[in-house]
Design brief:
Structural class: mainly alpha
Radius of gyration: 44 Å
Strand content: under 5%
Largest sheet: none
Distance between the termini: 119 Å
Number of helices: 39
Mean pLDDT: 84
Helix content: over 70%
Length: 807
């Protein structure tokens, strides 16, 4: 029950009452009347908390144990306790919202229980005043039907109290559900039928009844009915007159009769004091008129004034909506979004903000979204789309809002990457590799968010619009796939394949699943899907598109052991029967075959295919990688020829091989230099990890090619440039070692010894796990040459020492 600190002034009365209760306990025949009279007197003096302290004291046990407490006494006791609870709680309450707190609910429940006990013992204790308390408590507990039943029993003598509570129920219901609003309108109708209704209450009922009619689109009828009401008023400058002028202003505004609307609003404005909250409604309506007439700055200023001056008023939400619209019209998107965001916060918390529903807010913001989208300002359009979804509580956003959000995210992603969304996945990937990684990552994030929104749209539209849901299911899977979130893409492409058996995209869904599993390194599953696509419809585009990734998966699943099976597939693509050279599949197969031959050591064939690819596709985004691979193929082919030259063969054949070896080393040297120049000319912050490795190796392999050609001076220059370039990287060890080998080959022993000591010092600085890995691209030949050079240096120094000693 209610607890309160007792005021000092009433402490004596409490002690007196406690003393009375003590006497009652000791008396042979207790008389509770005195204690109850004291409590009733305190309530009359508007000291309900003190009365409650008495009624919660010793009398509770005494009245429960005494046989002398008859029904009338018990009824009076519970009635006074209920009344004290009701009044004491309202003394403490600051605002009606406190009724929804745990304390408020507990006190209302206890109040109702006490008054119901009083009714049980003696119905006569439920005076009209207490009936009103019960009704108001039931309203606080949102038990409206029961409250209405109690109000019906309040006699005419308490009509003011009854009307006040009816008005409270109606106000509460007007802001509620459609069913509650219908109940409110019925209550307004009954209220207006009361012939004794005071003028103020009659106007109150008229304004709310007619505002509902305006919302229903019956503004013309409202004008016809309200104009005569002005003539009924006793005082044309009364508060009630201001209400009717304001109502007429809004009705004329709805019919588009702006001058009449402005006249009535101005009349209302003249009646009301500057601080009256209805001035906010007037300013908001006048702002709407200015907005309609194209006076956007004036409208914006009026809306902003209402927002600032009447933050808790009924016009606040309307003004926020208008402010969002006018700021957008004036080209101030940030200010517009800020206003809408404030409105949406109210909608998200309460389901509606004043007279603004999420649907009305969506309609307003959707127009701004459309305008910004058409203007190419997709970031602002996205902000509107996100606010629209947030305006709905929980997951109640309609399908249209979710689809708008998904499409905007996808449009932004497409714009960021320059519209790279072609069906040629390889071409798209190649072009993406040329973009700033930060831009590609931003696009990826937008695609992932698009996938989430598309999937929500599927769930929201599957019943009402299954075809639209089907399109969004595909777009969700596609967006996740393009975002690199293949697990999500697999889940949705699988759902599409299972649930859309008759869809034209059925075969493509399996192809896309194969590509997803390939990206997830699940090559066996990918192979089975690609093979299924080829078997299902060998002549389909999806089957043709499956050849290259199927060949890739054969190689990846077997670590190149299935190279013959992959080669057969790629040659089938390249034989000219399935694809022309301008087909993306032909291009990819050619590149893939060249790289396959490079990996398995078939260097002459790799050179032929990679050269053909560069000739056919000089502007491919992968040109730099192709040149590097071609350089590698030439360098490694030269090394392969080197091993052949160690075998016995005719002189003419040896001469031809030596010429071919030198040609390939020169070609490799030239290609490495081309790659270095291209990548060095790029922004280093935008290079991918692969491009950085290619640049490093190109710099190093220039020296290797010159070394193998026997041009040690050129090799030293290249190695020295590489050592300086890679000074802070473990890879710097490679050129330092090769410089030793160059000086040793030239017989320049002092320089060789100095370079050797520097290389040994650098080696000690590098942890063994580092130089064993890819961070230091030292192959066996580098180590062997260094060992040979160091041994040779030791031998030469030993000879020199012996010679010096002999002298």
């Amino acid at each position: 029950l209610f607890r309160s600190q007792l005021p000092v002034a009433t402490l004596g009365l409490v002690l007196l009452a406690l003393g009375i209760a003590s006497i009652v306990e000791r008396a042979p025949g207790p008389d509770f009347g005195g204690v109850l009279n004291d409590a009733e007197a305190l309530i009359s003096k508007q000291e309900p908390a003190t009365a409650l302290a008495i009624l919660n004291g010793p009398i509770v046990d005494a009245i429960g144990k005494s046989a002398a407490a008859d029904a009338e006494t018990l009824a009076r006791f519970h009635a006074l306790r209920g009344e004290s609870l009701f009044l004491a709680h309202r003394e403490r309450r600051v605002e009606r919202a406190a009724m929804n707190t745990p304390e408020g609910i507990a006190n209302n429940t206890n109040t109702l229980a006490e008054l119901e006990k009083a009714e049980y013992y003696d119905k006569s204790q439920l005076t009209p005043r207490r009936l009103a308390f019960i009704a108001e408590t039931l309203i606080d507990l949102n038990r409206i039907e029961e409250a209405v039943e109690h109000l019906k029993h309040i006699p005419a003598a308490e009509s003011d109290r009854r009307r006040r509570l009816y008005k409270r129920i109606i106000t509460q219901d007007l802001a509620g559900t459609p069913a509650q609003r219908a109940r409110a309108l019925e209550g307004l109708k009954l209220l207006r039928e009361d012939l004794d209704l005071p003028q103020s209450d009659r106007v109150w009922a008229i304004t709310r009844q007619q505002r509902a009619a305006i919302e229903r689109g019956e503004a013309t009828r409202v004008i016809d009915e309200v104009l005569p009401e002005l003539q009924r008023l006793d005082d044309p400058n009364s508060s009630e007159a201001a209400d009717l002028h304001l109502l007429l202003g809004d009705a004329y505004l709805e019919t588009g009769e702006m001058e009449q609307a402005r006249n009535h609003l101005t009349l209302a404005e003249a009646i009301l004091s500057p601080g009256d909250e209805r001035r906010g409604e007037i300013d908001e309506s006048l702002a709407r008129i200015a907005q309609y007439k194209g006076e956007i700055e004036e409208a914006r200023d009026r809306f902003a004034s209402v927002v600032e001056r009447f933050p808790g008023g009924e016009s606040h939400a309307e003004a926020l909506l208008g402010l969002g619209e006018t700021e957008a019209d004036l080209g101030h998107p940030d200010e517009s979004l800020a206003a809408y965001a404030a409105l949406v916060d109210g909608l998200h918390q309460n389901g509606r903000a004043g007279s603004i529903t999420p649907e009305r807010a969506e309609s307003s913001m959707e127009q701004r979204h459309r305008i910004r989208s058409a203007a190419g300002d997709l970031d602002t359009a996205l902000a509107y789309a996100e606010l629209i979804v947030h305006a709905y509580r929980g997951d109640s956003a309609p399908a249209s809002a979710l689809l708008r959000l998904a499409e905007t995210h996808r449009d932004i992603a497409s714009t960021l990457v320059g519209g790279i969304t072609t069906d040629d996945e390889y071409e798209s990937a190649g072009r993406l590799s040329l973009l700033d990684p930060a831009i590609v990552e931003a696009a990826r994030i937008h695609l992932a968010k698009a996938g989430v929104a598309y999937e929500k749209h599927v769930r929201a539209s599957i019943v009402a619009s299954p075809e639209e849901a089907s399109v969004s299911l595909w777009n969700a899977a596609d967006s996740f796939d393009r975002a690199g979130e293949q697990q999500e893409a697999v889940r949705l492409f699988t759902e599409y394949a299972h649930n859309r058996q008759q869809s034209p995209k059925q075969l493509e869904s399996k192809y896309r699943l194969g590509r997803c599993f390939q990206a997830l390194n699940e090559y066996t599953t990918a192979i089975s899907l690609f093979e299924e696509v080829v078997r299902a419809n060998p002549g389909s585009d999806e089957a043709f598109r499956s050849y290259v990734p199927l060949a890739q998966c054969y190689l990846l699943a077997s670590n190149d052991a299935d190279s013959e099976k992959a080669e057969a597939l790629l040659l089938q693509v390249l034989d000219g029967r399935l694809f022309k050279p301008d087909a993306p599949q032909f291009k990819r197969a050619l590149l893939e075959l060249g790289q396959l031959y490079l990996r398995v050591g078939r260097f002459p064939e790799s050179i032929a295919r990679l050269t053909e690819a560069l000739d056919r596709y000089p502007d491919t985004p992968e040109e730099t990688r192709l040149r590097f691979d071609l350089a590698d193929a030439n360098r490694l082919s030269a090394a392969q020829i080197d091993r052949q030259l160690k075998e016995a063969m005719p002189v003419s054949e040896r001469a031809e091989l030596e010429r071919l070896r030198n040609d390939r080393l020169k070609a490799a040297l030239d290609l490495y230099e081309q790659v270095r120049a291209r990548l060095d000319g790029s922004d280093p912050t935008k290079l991918t990890a692969l491009q950085r490795i290619i640049l490093r190796n190109s710099i190093l392999y220039r020296g290797d090619c010159a070394f193998d050609l026997g041009d040690y001076e050129l090799a030293i220059r290249h190695y020295d440039a590489a050592a300086q370039r890679l000074a802070n990287e473990p890879a710097s060890l490679v050129p330092m070692v090769q410089i030793v080998n160059c000086y040793a080959a030239l017989g320049r022993l002092p320089e060789a010894r100095t370079a050797h000591e520097r290389a040994k010092a650098r080696l000690k600085e590098i942890h063994e796990t580092t130089w064993q890995g890819a961070a230091v691209p030292m192959d066996r030949r580098h180590w062997e040459r260094w060992l040979e050079s160091s041994l040779r240096l030791d031998q030469l120094e030993a000879k020199a020492s012996t010679a010096n000693a002999a002298q």
